[in-house]
Amino acid sequence: MKVIIVGGVAGGMSAATRLRRLDETAEIIVLDKGDYVSFANCGLPYYVSGEISERSELLLNTPEGLKARFNLDVRVNNEVVAIDRQAKTVTIKTPTGEYQESYDKLLLSPGASPVVPPVIGYEVAQNVFTLRNVENLDEMMAYITQHQPQKAVVVGAGFIGLEMVENLKLKGLEVTLVEKAPHVLPPLDEEMAAYVSQELVKQGVDVRVNTSVVEILNEGKAVRLEDGTELATDMIIMSVGVKPATDIAKKAGLALGMRDGILVNDQYQTSDENIYAVGDAIIVKNQITGEEALISLASPANRQGRQVADVLAGKARQNKGSIGTAIVRVFNISAASTGLTERQVKLSGKPYKVVHTRGNDHAGYYPGATAVTLKLIFNPETGELYGAQGVGTKGVDKRIDVLATAIKAGLTVEDLPELELTYAPPFGVAKDPVNMLGYVALNVMEGLTEMIQWHEVPEKIAAGMVLLDVRNEGELSRGQFPDSLNIPLNQLRERLDELDPNKAYLVSCASGQRSYLAERLLKQHGFKATNLDGAFFLYSVVRPEELI
Amino acid sequence: MKVIIVGGVAGGMSAATRLRRLDETAEIIVLDKGDYVSFANCGLPYYVSGEISERSELLLNTPEGLKARFNLDVRVNNEVVAIDRQAKTVTIKTPTGEYQESYDKLLLSPGASPVVPPVIGYEVAQNVFTLRNVENLDEMMAYITQHQPQKAVVVGAGFIGLEMVENLKLKGLEVTLVEKAPHVLPPLDEEMAAYVSQELVKQGVDVRVNTSVVEILNEGKAVRLEDGTELATDMIIMSVGVKPATDIAKKAGLALGMRDGILVNDQYQTSDENIYAVGDAIIVKNQITGEEALISLASPANRQGRQVADVLAGKARQNKGSIGTAIVRVFNISAASTGLTERQVKLSGKPYKVVHTRGNDHAGYYPGATAVTLKLIFNPETGELYGAQGVGTKGVDKRIDVLATAIKAGLTVEDLPELELTYAPPFGVAKDPVNMLGYVALNVMEGLTEMIQWHEVPEKIAAGMVLLDVRNEGELSRGQFPDSLNIPLNQLRERLDELDPNKAYLVSCASGQRSYLAERLLKQHGFKATNLDGAFFLYSVVRPEELI
């Protein structure tokens, strides 16, 4: 069997090495148009700041190493420019010419290319960079070394954009971040992304949302935003997203789907039975909605590469779809998500509820505990878990990993309190934040609490609800809701006569725990009470300007 | 409804507060024989070293605070000494006398008491301590302050014993650890516990296994071990385990089971319909084996307390059993387990296989990556996950939490590679250690690899197998298997003529990854090859004396 693999990074290289383990006799040729294969693309931003100090660290393997270990024929600077499906050959362009190579099976793992937004002046500027591969990195670093830029504009506040902001800032540049969406980190919901925004501002990043760069001026010395604002800059990073790199697949007439992603069956086979595809370039099934999706993440690409090798070697393997799990570190906080966002669930029309919790990453009485804020989106009738998000200094990755596993396994809200997670004071909490998230969601499902969401507050207050703040007096100096009533929780039972049985109360505290206790107390004493989900902490991050 | 709750820590206090949230009118009396309720028992060891510096941090709540917030009637120094089930009353002993209190429902959450081993001289020594509550801690700290001990003997190398060793050592004492079992940390399997033992020795702890303290000499100035060895000491910590504190339950004629644990149905109801029980004192169902088990952990106790409150308030709740998940930090490493150990599975007679993996906690090219060693015990026919264990510097808690969730959810080996976990260089690896564990186990199930376990090596070598070490030459200085053959993996394809087709090869490398590649290569070229699971790293920890 002669197998040609196009693309030698995550998906392609996983496929090549696995295939060799299964089939010592197969002829395996890996073609990559770039100078390098098997590089650490997720590590590239960290070399900009010097946090990863050796460039060689990013180069995980070489054609020579792959030949010695796996007997792979790896050819860099070999770009496939055409596929002849009838003849089962590919045309390959090299620095010195073109040649053809035949295949029995062809695997496409071309990845995705950065989207180039329609910006005037893009072409003439020499200081506009994207970051997808080692060549991009080398260009950027050469520019930085030569020109010693002081200011940078990063366009796009997704995962890569945020990593670039962090690393440029750590390198000492003044950084402006421009995002077209209403908030940074669009893969998360607004109120969770607000924590990231808060951290960016705290670290001195100039954050501009709801706008985009429409023109690059003076050969890159400045940019103009939608509203006409001009920002001086020394370099510009474009990270507005990626699209499947499927020009060759398209030219070859393979069936494509959304955004020109390659359509494959659950064995990774394209519309041509001898051509397979994996990685960022293919359309996958979202496991929760069953809908088509494009997911540009390293983990699924690696898994798919390994699985398609099994398929090529005649083993039964099936792409079961993806839920999408991702994390980003932004200075001192991390932000992660798994499954669907609230926005996606809302769009889908499914019934859903949302809860937010704030707990310690480890026992509060043990030194160094920090807050983890979690969000769960679920079906209030069945308890189905749609998605979860987390932000915090430490322990966010762990909680989202547990929730991702729960979602993948089809667990429900009712199962979350049952999870038996590691607990000792340095590591966790006896009632882990994930358990608590389940308890709170279960309280919602069983009608023990009625949650009001942060974005509903203005309308509820306008409709006559009274905001009852049950924090202690000493906590009020951190900020208050306007026109709120304060009765500390521990005094509430004794001071019920200060409340009006005809009014509806929206109870808040710091994190939402005490307000829940107050809500239960009030309800059982005949008052109309609801709980502000996420309470003061969440509100103060997402809507600080509305507090006094 | 008048509810009396016996025991005011994890289970009891979770029940009391939850019950109040559900029922504002219930009369809830919490009785505790100690001076304190709601204290952080898992934090006690860390106060010994001063890592938790304020004693007040350990006292999470007071009777006054619980009255104000939850309207609970909490009575400390109130010991229940008898239950009159006919009259539905309890007799309570206080420092000043006895009284009776009636109940509609009685909840027992008495916890477990330290086992006192049959040691001669125990009674007369004033420097022998256990650590279950604040009073124990106060006594121990008073002794330390007054006598400034230089040496300590810790008897029992379970979780608490190890935490005491760590904290006494951090306080500057010379510590000897004595464990009756063949290895420290008996809740883990031998080879995984060996990492803990290695760390203890590295930190200067005198570790003695396979022995016990049989006599305390000179009023505690020394101890004698089984083999007659005498060890001088200034203080002795007994942490040989706990047993259900069920004397009162027994006296009242409630049905008890193994080790006098209280038998309850899945609604936490004892053999008396008006008496319920939760926490360390009850017998639970092991969710994997369906067998009875005693589990002394904070998380299940908290969950059970909350659930029994729901039951008392008339809600449908069911104890679904436990799998048992635990973690301990021992100086610079952590060790965790979930589900069954290999020893337990072996005893059960179930078919099983074992795999070990060693991977990075986060991307190797990003600074600060450390090794995580994982073990998985599974059914090789069905893929059922029986249990998992992990050791390492960082990220062990996360991996065991994910595996605990997978086990709880009934996922199989085949599902582990599918898990979509958070990945960015500071947090994880594109193929997470948990994914890798699944891949390796799947390779075993599908016959792609045949694993030889570390304890099988001597018999295999004796039977004529040749140990083939495929590490590079530079790695051999770390230690070698005696009589092993070395061919670096990258040279193997070219040097196959050095191997004997009539011999069986047991391939090893550093962690087991390269040896697997070599095994695949050899098998496909017609050689008889197996892979040493865990390879050199694991062997060098569990059997260092057999290496040269």
Outline of this structure?
The structure is a homodimer of 548-residue chains. Chain A contains 15 helices and 30 strands. In chain A, a hairpin with a 4-residue loop joins strand 4 (79-84) and strand 5.
Keywords:
homodimer; 548 residues; alpha/beta; FAD/NAD(P)-binding domain; 5-stranded parallel sheet; 15 helices; 30 strands; 25% strand; globular; oxidation (chains A, B); oxidoreductase (chains A, B); Rhodanese-like_dom_sf (chains A, B); FAD (chains A, B)
Largest sheet of chain A: 5 strands, parallel
- Just give the CATH class of the largest domain in chain A: Alpha Beta
Terminal residue distance of chain A = 71 Å
Q: Work out the number of β strands of chain A.
A: 30
Which geometry of chain A do the CA atoms define?
globular
Question: Helical segment tally of chain A?
Answer: 15
> Roughly what is the average pLDDT of chain A, rounded to an integer?
96
Oligomer: homodimer
Whole-number count of domains of chain A: 4
CATH-wise, what's the superfamily of the largest domain in chain A? FAD/NAD(P)-binding domain
Strand content of chain A: 15-25%
| Greatest interface (CB-CB under 8 A), with counts per chain | A-B, 91 and 91 residues
Name the strands of the widest sheet of chain A in spatial order: 3-2-1-7-18
**Cα-based radius of gyration of chain A, to the nearest Å:** 26 Å
Which CATH-level-2 architecture of the largest domain in chain A? 3-Layer(bba) Sandwich
What are the segments of chain A in which pLDDT stays under 50 over at least 5 consecutive residues? none
CATH fold title of the largest domain in chain A: FAD/NAD(P)-binding domain
Helical proportion of chain A, percent range? 25-40%
